[in-house]
């Protein structure tokens, strides 16, 4: 019962505790796995399964409450602010890795190559890495015995450009779905959502394909030195977010099919579309600064 | 009452104020545990945060006393250097992430909804998750003490390569525990920011909000901006350790200095995250016991915002001696000094609030006045450290230790203690024991200065920080500091005793509690009912 104007307060809930158990198992599972303990991977997978169970149950509860009409405009506004600030924190997470990329390119590489313009830089190069010439991409890291470098890097106007087109198109299709939702065009809604999901999957497939080429043909790996480091960490975390976003899109498509949303009750849909636009914008940053410039 | 927990959402909306001070639960240990583990009530969750913080305070404090015991006289006395390093590392991590931050979030949970006239936090289930992640995170962190090799021993700042090439195996557990703490902080901050933006009672405009709420709004923003960066930093350490990346390894074209940039981009706003809520607390307490409105209220708000923005562009003042370029040193020096301006505005306004006020000195006010004086000392030593050529001398000495303990102990910690005394009658319905409170205050304030003031001299004389042994000429001041630390530690037992006595009984507190109290939390009965402001009050 949520009378007019009052804010819905949920009952005590066991889902957060289950979420804690999930993350706790994942954390110690991952650490044990890294240390080569047999229990590690099992614990990590157990934690992941519990996490999926928790998300299923928690969101189910929220969807039921929403469909039962417990949430007024104010709860809706809380969800909107919440999602907005969550995406803000995600932007800051990517900011750390973009920051590392810019710092490396503008400061670290010239410093090691002796071209940064300071005495310290010249001496670093002369005394420590006299053979290191710098440049970007770094084909030959300072100590090639430890970090092997790579033969070549991914082309800007190959898979990366196709993936850019795919993600931008998916941004358009999800907006098309949004219009359909507002205008009660059910067929267009389902069609455009399925299209968005497919574009997401194709993007992920191409990215996996690109990783395979990088590892098998180009010798570009996580251990290639700083170029491989920034390339895989940035595109990898982005890919992880696209994966999460695609799962979210699939769920929202199913919810659209069940008629959960209307023109005035579409927060779940909008939250996912914001998230999708966010991974889209991060990709543009990647395309420009990782693949292009 | 057939269910274990019969308090329901419906129940909340039935009455304007119900006078229950907890949910209806069955007798017995399991329902009691269930109440606290599954709760979605902001007051319950606030209480949980505060108790966790208090527990960790004694854990981190015990580590501090081990450190001071070792440093009582020169030479290695009771522990080997590696264990000493583990103690300094865990002491720092626990005090920052396990004590000050949870206590501040606990206060925000208890107070923000009551101060803005909201029925609860905006996202109550998320609130529960934010809290309960912390015991799990600290279980992992504490378990590193029992692992092969050693617990993390590279200082709370975990600089590369100490944490990458040279970190003990337990570093990976430390990394994942930081991830859990980060998730907890981000969700907690998100909840607070949404609560403040969306849940204010009609008429409670932004500029009418209590300063404590303002400080938390800005703190929450900083948390959302920099906790993900910390997550990025620990992730880079993890991949450098195990997955062949070279973020911080020059052999692969990376740079250990990059670690310091990423860490301090988080770390400097972090210290403002630790002090901002304290500013808010002091801004509530001083007007109450001066029986005057806060002087220059809107300027206080602008000053907080200015400090927050500046905090994002001063990080490299932690790195003056690392060989960064002269232009960078100049920029970060002047940006850092600029922070003294809004901070000065705040101190001026607190003093002006007291000026010609009808002041009384109950325990919260004593702590607040001590805060203004002693935090300012910490601010001045910060200003000294911001001067690049002077910092070349002070860097990595006990002067730095003295500086940040002056802003954290009589700064953040005293403010939190002041807050507990100030709002305890509202939480428990009983007045605390004033005599015991004053004993706690005087013992704390004297012993804290005995502990940390000599560290200024030690640092200026050149004693390096993070060493278990030292040259003979530093012996006297170290002995004095150690004596002060143990007195400080014992004094905190009075604090614990006072809180327990107040919960169990004591003089009944009135609704208003203090003669000069202002704000919505003082309009609800003491103890505050389990649900407050189910019907929002109208603020004129």
SSE blueprint:
The complex is a heterodimer of chains A (293) and B (540).
Chain A (H helix, E strand, L loop, with lengths): L14 H20 L4 H29 L5 H41 L5 H10 L27 H27 L3 H31 L9 H32 L9 H26 L1
Helix pairs in contact in A: 1-2, 3-4, 3-7, 3-8, 5-6, 5-8, 6-7, 7-8
Chain B lengths: L8 H6 L14 H10 L3 H29 L10 H36 L7 H20 L27 H28 L12 H32 L13 H35 L6 H15 L14 H13 L1 H15 L8 H24 L1 H7 L3 H31 L5 H27 L14 H30 L36
Helix pairs in contact in B: 3-4, 3-5, 3-16, 4-5, 4-6, 4-8, 4-14, 5-6, 6-7, 7-8, 7-9, 8-9, 8-11, 8-12, 8-14, 9-11, 11-12, 12-14, 12-15, 14-15, 15-16
Account of the 3D structure:
Chain A is an all-alpha fold. Chain A folds into 2 domains: 12-70, Helix Hairpins (Orthogonal Bundle); 79-88 and 144-292, Cytochrome c oxidase, subunit III, four-helix bundle (Four Helix Bundle (Hemerythrin (Met), subunit A), Up-down Bundle). Chain A has 8 helices and no strands. The model of chain A has no long low-confidence stretch (mean pLDDT 95). Chain B has 16 helices and no strands. Chain B has one domain (25-466, 474-522): Cytochrome C Oxidase, Chain A (Up-down Bundle), CATH 1.20.210. The two termini of chain B are 40 Å apart. Chain B has 540 residues and is mostly helical. Helices cover 66% and strands 0% of the residues of chain B. The longest helix of chain B has 36 residues, at 81-116. Chain B is globular and about 65 Å long. Chains A and B meet through helix 1, helix 3 and helix 7 of A and helix 1, helix 2, helix 5, helix 6 and helix 7 of B.
What is the CATH superfamily of the largest domain in chain A?
Answer: Cytochrome c oxidase, subunit III, four-helix bundle
**In terms of per-residue confidence, which ranges of chain B show pLDDT below 50 for 5 or more consecutive residues?**
1-18
Name the CATH architecture of the largest domain in chain A. Answer: Up-down Bundle
User: What is the second-level CATH architecture of chain B?
Assistant: Up-down Bundle
Summed up, the helix count of chain A is 8
* Largest interface: pair, residues per side: A-B, 72 and 82 residues
Characterize the biggest β-sheet of chain B.
none
Number of strands of chain A: 0
Q: In oligomeric terms, what are we looking at?
A: heterodimer
Coarse structural class of chain B = mainly alpha
Q: Looking at the structure, what is the overall shape of chain A?
A: globular
Taken as a percent bin, the fraction of beta residues of chain B is under 5%
User: Could you tell me the strand content of chain A as a percent range?
Assistant: under 5%
The CATH class assignment of the largest domain in chain A is Mainly Alpha
Distance between the termini of chain A: 57 Å
CATH fold-level topology of chain B: Cytochrome C Oxidase, Chain A
Question: What percentage of residues of chain B falls in helices of 4 or more residues?
Answer: 55-70%
Shape of chain B: globular
């Amino acid at each position: 019962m949520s009378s007019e104007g009052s804010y819905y307060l949920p009952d005590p809930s066991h889902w957060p505790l289950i979420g804690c158990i999930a993350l706790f198992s994942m954390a110690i599972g991952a650490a044990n796995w890294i240390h080569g303990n047999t229990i590690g991977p099992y614990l990590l997978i157990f934690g992941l399964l519990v996490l999926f169970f928790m998300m299923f149950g928690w969101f189910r509860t929220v969807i039921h409450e929403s469909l039962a009409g417990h949430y007024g405009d104010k709860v809706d506004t809380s969800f909107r602010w919440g999602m907005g600030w969550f995406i803000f924190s995600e932007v800051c997470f990517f900011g750390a890795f973009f920051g590392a990329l810019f710092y490396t390119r503008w400061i670290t590489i010239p410093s090691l190559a002796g071209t940064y313009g300071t005495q310290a830089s010249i001496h670093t190069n002369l005394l420590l890495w006299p053979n290191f010439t710098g440049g970007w991409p770094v084909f030959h890291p300072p100590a090639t015995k430890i970090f092997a470098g790579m033969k070549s890097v991914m082309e800007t106007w190959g898979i990366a450009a196709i993936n850019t087109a795919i993600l931008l198109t998916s941004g358009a299709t999800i907006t098309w779905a949004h219009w359909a939702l507002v205008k009660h065009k059910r067929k267009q809604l389902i069609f455009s959502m399925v299209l968005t999901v497919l574009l997401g999957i194709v993007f992920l497939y191409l990215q996996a394909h690109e990783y395979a080429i990088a590892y098998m043909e180009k010798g570009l790996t996580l251990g290639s030195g700083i170029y491989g480091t920034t390339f895989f960490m940035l595109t990898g975390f982005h890919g992880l977010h696209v994966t999460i976003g695609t799962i979210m899109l699939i769920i929202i498509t199913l919810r659209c099919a069940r008629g959960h949303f209307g023109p005035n009750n579409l927060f779940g849909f909008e939250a996912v579309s914001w998230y999708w636009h966010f991974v889209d914008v991060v990709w543009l940053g990647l395309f420009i600064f990782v693949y292009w410039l | 009452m057939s269910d274990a927990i019969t308090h329901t959402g419906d129940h909340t909306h039935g009455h304007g104020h119900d006078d229950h001070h907890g949910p209806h639960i069955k007798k017995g240990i399991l329902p009691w545990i269930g109440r606290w583990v599954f709760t979605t009530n902001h007051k319950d969750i606030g209480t949980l945060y505060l108790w966790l913080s208090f527990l960790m305070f004694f854990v981190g404090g015990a580590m501090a006393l081990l450190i001071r015991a070792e440093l009582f006289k020169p030479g290695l006395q009771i522990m080997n250097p590696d264990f000493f390093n583990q103690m300094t590392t865990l002491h720092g991590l626990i005090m920052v992430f396990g004590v000050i931050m949870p206590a501040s979030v606990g206060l925000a949970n208890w107070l923000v909804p009551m101060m803005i006239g909201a029925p609860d936090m905006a996202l109550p289930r998320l609130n529960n998750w934010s809290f309960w992640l912390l015991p799990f995170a600290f279980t992992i962190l504490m378990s590193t003490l029992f692992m092969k090799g050693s617990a993390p021993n590279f200082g709370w700042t975990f600089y590369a390569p100490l944490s990458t090439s040279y970190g003990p195996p337990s570093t990976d557990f430390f990394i994942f525990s930081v991830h859990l703490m980060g998730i907890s902080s981000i969700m907690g901050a998100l909840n607070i920011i949404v609560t403040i933006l969306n849940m204010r009672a009609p008429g409670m405009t932004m500029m009418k909000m209590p300063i404590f709420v303002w400080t938390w709004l800005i703190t929450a923003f900083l948390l959302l901006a920099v906790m993900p960066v910390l997550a990025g930093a620990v992730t880079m350490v993890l991949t450098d350790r195990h997955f062949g990346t070279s973020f911080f390894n020059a052999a692969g074209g990376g740079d250990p200095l990059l670690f310091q940039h990423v860490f301090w981009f988080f770390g400097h706003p972090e210290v403002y995250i630790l002090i901002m809520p304290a500013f808010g607390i002091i801004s509530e307490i001083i007007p109450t016991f001066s029986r005057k409105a806060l002087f220059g209220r809107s300027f206080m708000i602008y000053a907080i915002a200015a400090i927050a923005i500046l905090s994002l562009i001063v990080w490299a003042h932690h790195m003056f001696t690392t060989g960064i370029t002269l232009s960078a040193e100049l920029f970060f020096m002047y940006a850092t000094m600029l922070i003294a301006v809004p901070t000065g505005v705040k101190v001026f306004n607190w003093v002006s609030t007291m000026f010609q006020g009808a002041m009384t000195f109950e325990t919260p006010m004593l702590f607040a006045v001590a805060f203004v004086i002693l935090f300012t000392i910490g601010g001045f030593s910060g200003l000294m450290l911001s001067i690049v050529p002077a910092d070349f001398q002070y860097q990595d000495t006990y002067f730095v230790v003295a500086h940040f303990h002056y802003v954290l102990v009589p700064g953040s910690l005293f403010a939190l203690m002041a807050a507990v005394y100030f709002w305890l009658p509202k939480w428990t319905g009983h007045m605390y024991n004033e005599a015991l409170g004053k004993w706690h205050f005087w013992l704390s304030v004297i012993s804290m200065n005995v502990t940390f003031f000599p560290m200024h001299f030690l640092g200026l004389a050149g004693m390096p920080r993070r060493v278990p042994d030292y040259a003979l000429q530093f012996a006297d001041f170290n002995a004095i500091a150690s004596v002060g630390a143990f007195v400080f530690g014992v004094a905190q037992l009075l604090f614990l005793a006072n809180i327990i006595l107040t919960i169990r009984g004591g003089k009944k507190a009135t609704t208003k509690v203090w003669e000069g109290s202002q704000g919505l939390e003082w309009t609800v009965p003491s103890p505050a009912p389990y649900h407050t402001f189910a019907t929002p009050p109208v603020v004129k």
